[in-house]
Each structure stands twice: as C-alpha cells, then as structure tokens.
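User: Here's a structure from my thesis project, written as structure tokens. My advisor, Dr. K., wants to see whether a designed sequence matches the one we expressed. Can you design one independently, without my sequence as a hint?
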C-alpha cells in the first residue's frame, strides 16, 4: 500500500475513510485517493494496491461522461497539473476539484436488490421503508431504479433514512432534486456499463453546492461506491461474479467479524483478487488499461 508522505503538500483539510483532502487556495482542493479500503463503514488494516489510482481515474472518466446531466467538481487529474510538484505515483491517484459545501446525505440508487436492501426486504418486504413487490430473490431487478438515501457519517456507520426524514434534513425541494438527478445519473451509467458487460446493481452519489449551484462531488461510479456485476454470469438468486469490493465483504463475513472495529487483516490472496477486480472494472468501463 502506498504511503502518502510528500513533504511539499499543503495542510490537510480532511482525513476520510479512503480520501485525504488538501487545500489549494480558496476555491480548489487536492483530493488524494489512498489504497485504504473500508467495508461496513470500517477502514480495514490492509490496503489494496493501485486502488487509489483506480478510484481517481475512473471518477474522472465518469465526471466527464456525466457532465451533461449535472455540473461536477472535477477540474483535472493531478497528472495534468505539473505545477503541483508532487510525485508521479501520488499524482496518478489524485484529482484537483472545486471546493464545495457538502450536503450531508448519501444518495443511493438501486437497480437490483442486494446488500442491505435485500436484508431489509427479507425482514419486512420493504426497501428503505418503501413497499416492494412480493417474491423477489436476491439480484432481481426493480421495476424502476429506486432512491434510498442514508446519513453521511464521517466515522461509524451510515444509517438508512426515509424520504420523509431526508426532507426534514435538507428540505422537500432539494430532496426531490437530488432523487431526480441521482436516478438520471444511475440510469445513464447503467446503460453505458451494460454495453460493456457490467451490471451496476447499485451506487451512491454525493452532492454539494459550488457558488450556490448543485454539484456532483467526491467520487462517482467507482468499485468502492458501486456494485459492479459481470453481466455474463448474471442469474438472480445466487452469488454473482463482481468487479468491486464484495469479495472483501464476503471474506470478512466468512470470518464471523461483527462489523465493528478493529477489522481483521486481509490475507494476500484476497488482496490480490480484489486488486485484479478493480483493474478489470476500470478496463471494461473505460476500454483502457490503468495509467
């Protein structure tokens, strides 16, 4: 795992689960994606090689692809900013972005039922409190993509909230706009990825405002923030081949871990298989090898 120890970086503004953010003047930030990996909202003690580079470069790809839907905070990959005077290895995992005021809600869109949505459905027949059709099996498609927001926790677990609870937090108009934009982004990406052999089962978006304008921020449609499934192996009701960190989640669950810190160390074979899945996701979606 690459350790970020550059001596010429500006002061760190924010230390996240995966990203570290530095100020570049009043209106720009340097956002560095590390090789740290989190699962069940806990940062694991073992990193995944090249993960940070995949996250930054695939986010840049999607920011460019989706800018017709909503403005985003992306300015440039750090590799295109030699004025930053940072090492090539650090630059390939970094983005220069606009400074934004974050909206403290995670906007999750689900196209197929899996993960926490599947767990809730089995308990109550609902997803995020919304009644669902009877008889679904894991991996089934919803009739239409659904919007299931959560809280945004800097530490600890994010919590599911209803649309009504989100409206109380950020207002009814903004809730409606975020749901609309999130579903539009997901639908565009779902169709694009489908042509490249990947099913996007679900994904999460984050938003903020830049000079008062609603803006897509953070990462977008990465193997960290999404479930990417291999379309050729898709069959509802069974374990599905994936290109994301589900492999890590499955291994952790098999160890009987209770999803509370500290998390166990990942063995080398899990690290390498996850590394390869991230690289495959990048190549399938972009058509290129990771730079």
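Assistant: Designed independently from the structure alone:
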């Amino acid at each position: 795992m690459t350790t970020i120890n550059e001596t010429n970086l500006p002061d760190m503004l924010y230390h996240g689960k995966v990203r570290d953010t530095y100020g570049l003047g009043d209106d720009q930030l340097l956002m560095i994606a590390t090789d740290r990996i989190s699962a069940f909202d806990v940062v694991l003690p073992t990193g995944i090689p090249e993960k940070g580079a995949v996250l930054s470069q695939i986010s840049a790809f999607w920011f460019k692809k989706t800018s017709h839907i909503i403005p985003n905070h992306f300015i440039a990959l750090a590799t295109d900013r030699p004025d930053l005077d940072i090492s090539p290895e650090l630059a390939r995992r970094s983005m220069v972005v606009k400074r934004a005021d974050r909206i403290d809600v995670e906007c999750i869109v689900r196209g197929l039922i899996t993960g926490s949505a599947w767990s809730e459905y089995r308990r109550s027949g609902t997803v995020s409190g919304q009644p669902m059709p009877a008889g679904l099996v894991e991996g089934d498609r919803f009739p239409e993509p659904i919007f299931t927001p959560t809280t945004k926790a800097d530490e600890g677990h994010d919590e599911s909230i209803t649309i009504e609870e989100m409206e109380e937090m950020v207002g009814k108009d903004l809730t409606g706009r975020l749901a609309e934009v999130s579903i539009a982004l997901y639908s565009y990406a779902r169709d694009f990825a489908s042509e490249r052999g990947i099913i996007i089962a679900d994904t999460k978006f984050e938003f903020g405002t830049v000079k008062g304008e609603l803006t897509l921020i953070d990462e977008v449609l990465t193997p960290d923030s999404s479930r990417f499934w291999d379309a050729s192996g898709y069959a509802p009701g069974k374990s599905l081949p994936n290109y994301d960190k589900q492999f890590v989640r499955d291994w952790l669950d098999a160890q009987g871990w209770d999803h509370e810190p500290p998390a166990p160390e990942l063995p080398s074979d899990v690290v390498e298989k996850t590394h390869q899945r991230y690289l495959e996701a990048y190549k399938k979606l972009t058509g290129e090898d990771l730079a």
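When you compare it with your expressed construct, this may help: The two ends are 17 Å apart (CA to CA).
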